[in-house]
Design brief:
Pfam families: HAD_2. InterPro entries: HAD-like_hydrolase_sf (IPR050155), HAD-like_sf (IPR036412), HAD-SF_hydro_IA (IPR006439), HAD_2 (IPR041492), HAD_sf (IPR023214), PGP-like_dom2 (IPR023198). The longest helix has 15 residues. The chain folds into two domains: 142 residues, HAD superfamily/HAD-like (Rossmann fold); 61 residues, Orthogonal Bundle (DNA polymerase, domain 1), CATH 1.10.150. By secondary structure, the chain is α/β, with parallel strands linked by helices. It has a six-stranded parallel beta sheet, with helices on both faces. It has a two-stranded antiparallel sheet with strand order 2-3.
């Protein structure tokens, strides 16, 4: 689904997290494989883990465990993964090039900044504090106090927009997956896809969710903001 009748400038920018602001893939691979090994399950390559991410921890684990894994065992593996995440240092995770300067520049343009991720809410809080502390106004994941469902359900995105004191027509939602564009459409926002994340940019058109803008560098996102005064 292609463009809505929204045009820049915009003063509210909400971002997906993994694959959009932060490169978390190496840590996700190490943590997931450590947990799988605890359960005597086969481990996965970086490319395989990459194909599993984007729809939250449950989707990652349920794809990573063998297909014949009993549901109760898969659930135990997921619970162990979340428990381990709380203590895992995530030392391999870092912002993509240009992300921190982009956020600072959007601040200079007096923009409101948020994060909405399909990662479980506690994990979002942890990794944002570690890697992007003080650089956004709000950050939410699946569940949490708002009990937000996973994207593309627009509930979490609309609530985050309201929390920022904005409206969908003034908001850009940015992500690396077709599901992010779907969420933006469902909420009535301007949709930006990025080509540096975990998904092939061709996936946007292939899955029928083309963004209003496909960004190849963070400066293109800053260009959507009002002129700084």
């Amino acid at each position: 689904m292609k463009a809505q009748a929204l045009e820049p400038p915009f003063d509210t920018f909400i971002f997906d997290l993994d694959g959009t602001l932060l490169d978390t893939l190496d840590d996700l691979m190490v943590l997931t494989n450590d947990v799988l090994a605890e359960f005597d399950m086969p481990t996965h390559t970086r490319e395989e883990i990459n194909s599993y991410v984007g729809n939250g921890a449950a989707a990652l684990i349920y794809q990573a465990v063998p297909a014949d894994t009993p549901p109760a065992v898969a659930d135990a593996c997921l619970a162990r993964w979340k428990e381990a995440y709380d203590r895992y240092p995530n030392d391999l995770t870092k912002p993509y090039p240009g992300i921190e300067s982009m956020l600072a520049e959007l601040r200079r343009h007096d923009c409101r900044l948020g994060i909405l991720s399909n990662k479980f809410d506690r994990g979002v809080t942890f990794i944002v504090e570690k890697c992007l502390a003080g650089q956004v106004d709000v950050a939410h994941g699946e569940g949490g106090e708002g009990h937000f469902p996973r994207k593309p359900d627009p509930t979490g995105l609309l609530a985050t927009i309201e929390e920022l004191g904005s409206t969908p027509a003034r908001t850009v939602y940015i992500g690396d997956s077709p599901g992010d564009i779907h969420a933006a459409r469902n909420a009535g926002c301007y949709a930006v896809g990025v080509d540096w994340g975990y998904h092939d940019p061709a996936d946007f058109a292939a899955e029928g969710w083309e963004p209003d803008l496909l960004a190849s560098n963070p400066e293109q996102i800053v260009a959507l903001a009002p002129v700084a005064v």
